[in-house]
Every structure is written in structure tokens, then in C-alpha cells.
Amino acid sequence: MLKNRICLINEYEDKKYLNILKNFWEKNVGMKTIIVSPHLHDKILSITSHLPHLISFLYIYFIKSKKFKNLKKFSGPYFEDFTRVADNNFKMWTEIFLSNRDEILNYGYQFVEYLNNLLNFLKKSEYDKILKFLKDVKKSYRKVL
């Protein structure tokens, strides 16, 4: 699952420790390692991991608040893909969220702003704006991956 994936390692002054980490991830797990600054590490992970986890947790909480149950039987595979990360180690994720709080807050508020814009397009039945938004997303999809 992690083989040939990229592992971001925070740069350290201690080169011996850095080599131990690189060897572990490359030889034992089969990942490719890239050394980055702690700031860049936190920025990238907040977008690729932390915010998506937060959204999945929130989505499950939302479903629970609406008293829905057994929704999986009414859904396609995407529903399970989107929500499976919510079935995770809650203590670990609490610590991750707090340790990268600033970046998650920054991108989280920006995400909410985009969500509000799209919801306003829907509220006003602005077909052209929704279409333009979805067309732009489709055009950008491969570029951001």
C-alpha cells in the first residue's frame, strides 16, 4: 500500500538520524523519501491528509446528528471510500490536528469559504456558476493529483 509512495521527512541537523529514517522508509517500507522543511511538511500534509480526515470525521458526525443509520446499503462505493478514514484512531488524530493546528485552520477556513460559495450558487439556482465551477474542477483534477 505504501510501496513507491513518497514519504516526506523533516530536515534535521543530525545527518545520522536522517539516514536512519531514510533507510527505514526506503528499505523496510519501499517508499521514496524527500527531505523537506517542517513548515512545508505541515503544509503538504494538512492538504493531503489532515483536512480530508477532518472532513470525513465531520461528515460522519453530521450523518449521526441526522439520525441516519445503515446508509452504506443505500450507497455506492464512493460513500465508503469517503467515510472509511473516519474509522480511525481518534486519539492519534486529535494529536495530529493539534500539532498541525495552524495549517489545518488556514486551509479549513479557505475550504469553508469555497463551500459557502458553492452553496450560495445552489441557493440562488445559478446554473451557469455551478456549471463553470464543476467544469473548472474537472479541468483541474488531473493537475492537482
The CATH homologous superfamily name of the largest domain equals: 6-phosphogluconate dehydrogenase C-terminal like domain
Number of structural domains:
2
Can you summarize the main beta sheet? 2 strands, parallel
Helix-residue proportion: 55-70%
Strand content: 5-15%
Question: How are the strands of the biggest sheet laid out side by side?
Answer: 1-2
Count of extended strands: 2
Order of helices and strands: EHEHHHHH
Architecture of the largest domain in CATH?
Orthogonal Bundle
Radius of gyration: 19 Å
The average pLDDT score comes to 94
CATH topology of the largest domain: 6-phosphogluconate dehydrogenase C-terminal fold
Report on the architecture of this protein.
The protein is mostly helical and 145 residues long. It has 2 domains: 1-36, no CATH class; 39-144, 6-phosphogluconate dehydrogenase C-terminal fold. It is built from 6 helices and 2 strands, in the order βαβααααα. It has a two-stranded parallel ribbon. Helix 2 crosses helix 5 (101-123). The longest helix is centred in the middle third of the chain and has 28 residues, at 38-65. It starts with 5 loop residues before the first strand and ends with a helix.
